[in-house]
Amino acid sequence: MPKIHAILVGINYYGTDAELSGCHNDVDLMFSYLRKLGCDQFKILKDSPADEHFSKEDCPTKSNIICAIKDCFARMGGEDTLLFHYSGHGSSLRDKNRDEKDGRDECICPADYAAEGFLVDDDLNKLLVQPLLQNPELAKCKVRCVFDSCHSGSILDLPFTIVSKANVIIENKNRAACDVVCLSGCKDAQTSADAQIQGRGQGAATFALWSALSSVKKSASWMDVLLTMQTALKQARFSQVACASVPSLGHLSLACDLALPEEMKRVEAKKIGVQPVSVSVEEILELMRRSSSSSAEKQANKKLAPVARAVEAPSASRVDSGRCASGNSGR
Known about the structure:
There is one protein chain. The protein is α/β, with parallel strands linked by helices. It has a single domain, classed as 3-Layer(aba) Sandwich (Rossmann fold), CATH 3.40.50. It has helices at about 25-35, 60-75, 115, 120-130, 130-135, 205-215, 220-235, 265-270, 280-290, 295-305, and strands at about 5-10, 40-45, 80-85, 90-95, 105-110, 120, 140-150, 160-165, 165-170, 180-185, 195, 200-205, 245, 310, 320. Helix 7 packs parallel to helix 9 (about 280-290).
C-alpha cells in the first residue's frame, strides 16, 4: 500500500527582526489535513523561542531540513509519496552559475540561515527531484511540494512554471521523467503574505491551498487546484499569484492525489473554527474575504516590510527578501 511521507517545516524566526506569526499554524493545518488522508508518516520541524542556539532535534536548521529529506527518501519505495511543505521566509540571490533567466536564484531561509546560509533552488532540486531520477528504487515514487514563502515561483528549478492557462514560463530545458508537482505561494518577483485569518496568524497561500484541497472534487486536476487557490487569494485581495511548477505540462491534467474524499471535507473546517462546518468553494471564498479585511492585510504588510527586504547574507551577497528574510507580513 503506497504511503504518504510528510515533512512539514514551519519557521517563525522568534526574537528576530524577521519574525512571522503564521508558519507554525500552517504546519498544524496541514498536519490535520494530511491525517484525514491517512498519512501517518510525519517529520515536523518547528523553531522555538526557547531554542536560541537551534540545538533541538526538531529545529528547522539547514542541516536538519537536508537530513529530514534524505532520511525520508531512504524509507520510501514502490509508489510512495513525499510531501514537503515549507512555511517561512524566502529570498533570492544573484545567480552564480547562470542557469536562471532572471539572473536570480530563489531560496528558502532555514532557522539558522544567518550563520549557515540559505537553501537555494539548485540545492532543493538536488534534494527533492534528483533522487527520483538517480535511484531506481524511487522511480515510481511521487514528490509533492508546497512553498509558502516569498520569491518561490520556480523554487524547484523544474522546466515549466505555470502562472495561468495562458502564461506558462519555460524555465529551462532540463526535461525530467519523474512525478513531481510543486505549488508556490507567489511568483518569483512577489512576496507571500503572512496574514491574519480567523483571528490567527496564517500563511495566505497555505490557507488557500487547504481551501482548494478541501473543496475541489476528488477527480480535480492539479490545474483545478491551482486555479482555485488563485481565485481564493484574489478574492481575498491578496496581490500574490500562486504558481505551479512541473517537469512536463501533462502533469497539470493529472488528478490531484491530495484532495479529500467528499465525505471528509466538512470535518476539516472545524480545525480553524469555520461555522457552520461546510466547505463549498463559495463559502471558502467568503471566509477569506471576511477574514482578510483591509486592516488585517495592512497589519500583515506592516509586519513584513521592516524585516529588511534587502539583508546582508554572511557571504555579503545581497538578499532581496520578503515571507522574505525581511519584517512586512510577507514571507
